[in-house]
Amino acid sequence: MKLVETGLPGCLVIEPRVFEDARGSFHEAFNLDALAAQGLGLAFVQGNVSTSSEGVLRGLHYQWPGAQGKYVSVLQGEAWDVAVDIRRGSPTFGRWTAVLLSAGNRRQFWIPEGFAHGFVALAEHVVFTYLCTSPYDAEADAAIRWDDPDLAIDWPVAAPRLSEKDARAPLLAEIAEDRLPRYDAAGARALTGEPG
Ligand SMILES: Cc1cn([C@H]2C[C@H](O)[C@@H](COP(=O)(O)OP(=O)(O)O[C@H]3O[C@H](C)C(=O)[C@H](O)[C@H]3O)O2)c(=O)[nH]c1=O
């Protein structure tokens, strides 16, 4: 596998080795030892799958406390996937990066704890899967407006279909400081916000 830097430090694209033969193809969905051998030590506690039709946008979501790192990929169709640094005190606070994920390119995308995440489905049937480093906590689950002008994310869809929650999400500037993840310069990853 190959790890590729993105425009946003900490966010990485992982390109797995794909084995193709007359039957079809094989690639590893994730490999913790191989990631650790390249300096990316991860541990996942939950895996999620969502299905979306074309034009659906899910996001921008994050958890705080209990920040989740996410290792995402697309099993069917294609999605434009976005990570935004919302860690208070981060030198790249408010900056975003995007990756086109598809069943065809088999790209995987690592989004560290403390980033907001969202994607827009670009095919009629998109199966999106992701592994999380912390468990879901409905109380800590939060959203930021997908079209926040301060973020100026260059979404490839002008009028996406949103959940009610996402349609009424606040702007980043409207969110109280203590509701945003904190940047931990030493670890270069957000603190999870867990006490102790
Ligand atoms: C995330 C999650 C949700 N749920 C329940 C809560 C709701 O009743 C239902 C749908 O949840 P939601 O509308 O938040 O699903 P998405 O809009 O796909 O949210 C996800 O999409 C963006 C892109 C993300 O990065 C997050 O992982 C996650 O927020 O599933 C659970 O039971 N467990 C979970 O881990």
UniProtKB/TrEMBL annotation:
* Record field: transmembrane: none
* UniProt-recorded Gene Ontology molecular function terms: dTDP-4-dehydrorhamnose 3,5-epimerase activity
Q: Which domain of life is it from?
A: Bacteria
User: Where does this protein act, in terms of pathway?
Assistant: Carbohydrate biosynthesis; dTDP-L-rhamnose biosynthesis
**Which Pfam families is this protein grouped with?**
dTDP_sugar_isom
Q: Which EC number(s) does UniProt give? A: 5.1.3.13
Q: What UniProt keywords are attached to this protein's entry?
A: Isomerase
User: What is the reaction catalyzed?
Assistant: dTDP-4-dehydro-6-deoxy-alpha-D-glucose = dTDP-4-dehydro-beta-L-rhamnose
The similarity annotation says: Belongs to the dTDP-4-dehydrorhamnose 3,5-epimerase family.
> What assembly does the database describe for this protein?
Homodimer.
Q: What does this protein do?
A: Catalyzes the epimerization of the C3' and C5'positions of dTDP-6-deoxy-D-xylo-4-hexulose, forming dTDP-6-deoxy-L-lyxo-4-hexulose.
Q: What is this protein called?
A: dTDP-4-dehydrorhamnose 3,5-epimerase
